[in-house]
Specification:
Belongs to the class II aldolase/RraA-like family. The protein has 224 residues and is of the alpha/beta class. The chain is built from 8 helices and 9 strands.
Length: 224
C-alpha cells in the first residue's frame, strides 16, 4: 500500500494577496536576488499572472497520472507546481485539464515539462507557466509524491511556499519569509518610483546612478 499525504500548512491569504501586487523581478531583487526559477519557464501568454501557495507534485517524464491527482486534491487558490524531470518533449497538460483547474478555482500551474493546446489556454485565461510547448502525449502509469518538497527550475519549492509569476518569469518565496518579502518589495518599489520621477524631471543616469566615481574607480577615462 502507498500512502500519499495532501496535508500542508498554507500561508495567510492576506499575505498572498499583498505579495501579488509586486512583479516577479521586484520580489526576486528585494529578497536578495533569491528564488528565481530558470528563465526557460515562461507563460503561454504574456498577460498571464499568478500568485499562490504551491501544491507540489512529482511526475515521471511523459506521465501525467500524478498531475491529474494533484488537480483533484488541490484547493481553490493553490498553484499546482509540477516536477516532471525537466523533460521538454511532452505535452502533459492542455485545455481539458485547464478547464478542470478553472472549475475548481485553482490559481494556476507551473511545470518544468511541456504543455499543449496553447491557443485554447490563452482563450481560457487560466495561468500556465511551462518549460516548453509540445504536442507529444503522455501516459498514466507512475505513482509519485504529492505535497513534498520538489526542485523545479533550479529552486527548491515546498508545499505552502508562495509562487509569483508573470511575463518575466517565476519566483518562489518561502512561507516564513512572506512578511519580510512584502516589506522589502515595497521598499524597492518606492525607491524605483523615486528614480523614475527623477529621470522624468530631467536628471541624468550619471547623476542618479553616481556613475562618475564608479567608473573612475575602475580606471575608466571618458573622452567627451
Amino acid at each position: 500500500m502507498i500512502t500519499i499525504s495532501t496535508k500542508f500548512e498554507r500561508p495567510d491569504p492576506d499575505l498572498v494577496k499583498r505579495l501579488s501586487a509586486f512583479s516577479s523581478a521586484t520580489i526576486h531583487e528585494a529578497q536578495g536576488r533569491l528564488g528565481a526559477l530558470d528563465s526557460v519557464i515562461k507563460p503561454v501568454d504574456h498577460r498571464m499572472k499568478l500568485c499562490g501557495p504551491a501544491f507540489t507534485v512529482v511526475c515521471a517524464p511523459r506521465d501525467n497520472l500524478m498531475l491529474q491527482t494533484a488537480i483533484h486534491y488541490a484547493r481553490p487558490g493553490d498553484v499546482v507546481v509540477v516536477s516532471g524531470g525537466a523533460y521538454a518533449e511532452a505535452g502533459s497538460f492542455g485545455d481539458v485539464l485547464a478547464n478542470a483547474c478553472r472549475s475548481k478555482g485553482l490559481g494556476g500551474l507551473i511545470t518544468d515539462t511541456g504543455v499543449r493546446d496553447t491557443q485554447e489556454l490563452r482563450e481560457l485565461g487560466f495561468p500556465v507557466f511551462s518549460r516548453s510547448v509540445c504536442i507529444k502525449g503522455t501516459v498514466k502509469e507512475t505513482v509519485g509524491p504529492l505535497c513534498e518538497p520538489v526542485t523545479v527550475g533550479g529552486q527548491l519549492i515546498r508545499p505552502g511556499d508562495v509562487v509569483n509569476a508573470d511575463a518575466d518569469g517565476v519566483v518562489v518565496v518561502r512561507r516564513e519569509d512572506l512578511t519580510e518579502a512584502i516589506a522589502a518589495s515595497q521598499r524597492r518599489t518606492d525607491t524605483e518610483a523615486g528614480f523614475i520621477a527623477a529621470y522624468r524631471s530631467g536628471r541624468t543616469v550619471a547623476e542618479i546612478c553616481n556613475l562618475a566615481p564608479l567608473l573612475a574607480a575602475k580606471g575608466v577615462v571618458i573622452d567627451e
